[in-house]
Amino acid sequence: MEGCYPDFTVVDEMASVTLVIEGHRLYVHREVLAAWSPVFRAMFVQDFKEKSMAEIELPGKKVEDFVQLLHCIYPPIQEITDSNVFHLLPLTEEYQISEVKKRCEEYLLTRPGSMELLITAQTYGLMSVLEKCIEFARKKTLPELQKDAFFKSIHPENVIQILMMRCGDLEDKLEQSRKMVTERDVRLYGCINEFASGYGSFCTECKSRRINDTCFNCLKMFRDKVKTKCDEVRQIRNQMPLLL
Ligand SMILES: [Zn+2]
């Protein structure tokens, strides 16, 4: 794809302004820059000294990053990728090139949520990416959050949002667990109650309907019943695991 883009380092008689970055000259068009960037527009139309200058020095910029930005606003449109998005964002912010910034945001929305991305989103006000990353962070435990290197850089209002959402999640789970425990207790006590109410079956040896301590058949039936009920209790516990 690289060959499809204009080479801004080649002197172009149609170019109306030369940007000087890291000693490199980029021959570009005021109209194109102004069409995308209100900051460049202001430079060219207002009473700035840049208005009449044919050369504008942009100190502190990397020429490679700036060429990537130019590829985004000169056709064909530069694809946003992992390797250029983090260089483009600060430039789109500084020059208020909202269309390219929007494309960066759309691209980042396709990436998995992470704490690092959360910091990027809050730095550049990428609200949909921020929302996605807060969704990611609310699923983490407090120790996991605290040991994350990026946690300290999260703005307090975002930390509050993450913790409030997490708190809400935990309260929901707690409530569900409470209901589950109640239901489980009812079933478990039901099993125990069957012992309290005797065998529930007629003994063929001593003909007793209740447990007879001196009858081996009664004791054997009781032992079998204990085993059956223990299995039943284990099954109830497995069927109804507690969430917390
Ligand atoms: Zn018996």
UniProtKB/TrEMBL annotation:
Report what the protein is called: BTB domain-containing protein
SUPFAM superfamilies attached here?
A: POZ domain
SMART domains the record matches: BTB
**BTB domain segment(s):** 15-82
Q: Which InterPro entries match?
A: BTB/POZ_dom, SKP1/BTB/POZ_sf
